Amino acid sequence: MNVLGLITQFSGLRVAHQCSRLAPPIFPGLRCIHMSARLNAEPLKKKKRLDPAILRMREERRKRRIEKGIRQLKKHAKKHKPIEEMEVAPKLQKEIGLRHRTLPVLDHETCQLREAMQRAWTVYCKRMHENEASMVERVVAAQQKALDMLQEESPELYQAAVQVDEGLLPFKLKAVVSTPPIKNYEVPDGKYVDTTKKWRP
Q1: What residue numbers bound the domain in which 63 lies?
Q2: Looking at the structure, do residues 111 and 150 belong to the same domain, yes or no?
Q3: Which terminal residue of the chain has fewer beta carbons within 10 Å of its beta carbon, N or C?
Q4: Interatomic CA distance for residues 123 and 146, integer angstroms
């Protein structure tokens, strides 16, 4: 059997055919033997084929779960989170019948009198606001006129007059810069229990 033909049967060996004539006649082809890297690969796993009924059942189950979530969102869409400060205590809700008051029915003359009083009060407030606004306008106009005349007479006095008076409002505040230590104060270890109420729609 030819040695060159035997060598070419191995998958990991590569032989150059043009070098066979250069090899000695006793061991032809030995000089042209080259080792190539083996590529070890795992055979592909066969993909399991599931029953179409099982796939359809899974799809329907997922669809029902999504529809249930949508119904829950629609059910609680208009329900807001309650505010404890604005909620009525259950005890007061039970006593709502005892606390209910019936308002007296007013006659026509009383209603007319209240409307007249409300109208008179509105007119009085309007006139008071107009008087205050006109008074402020007169004071501002007189002040501006005096400043203009002062500027014409003496620019130095005008500059001194328009300066901000720091002592107009003598207000002083001494804030606390340090907190005194508390006697027999036990420092917490950092753990605490959250008592915040959880709300679920």
Answers
A1: 52-84
A2: yes
A3: N
A4: 35
Residues 112 and 156 in one domain: yes
Count: domains in the chain: 2
pLDDT value for 193: 78
- Quote the CA–CA distance of 109 and 116 in Å, as a whole number: 11
Average pLDDT of the segment spanning 95-121: 92
Same domain for 155 and 109? Answer: yes
Range among 2-16, 112-126, 180-194 rated most confident: 112-126
Tell me, yes or no, whether 149 lies in a domain: yes
| pLDDT recorded at residue 198 | 77
Task: Please tell me the distance from the alpha carbon of residue 170 to that of residue 166, in angstroms, as a whole number.
Answer: 8
Q: Are 30 and 13 in contact (CB under 8 A)?
A: no
Asked if residue 46 belongs to a domain, the reply is no
Within-domain flag for 184: no
Rounded CA-CA distance 190/32 in Å is 78
Overall pTM > 0.90 = no
| Tokens of residue 113, six digits | 């009198």
The 10 Å CB-count burial string (b at 16+, else e) for 29-58 is: beebeeeeeeeeeeeeeeeeeeeeeeeeee
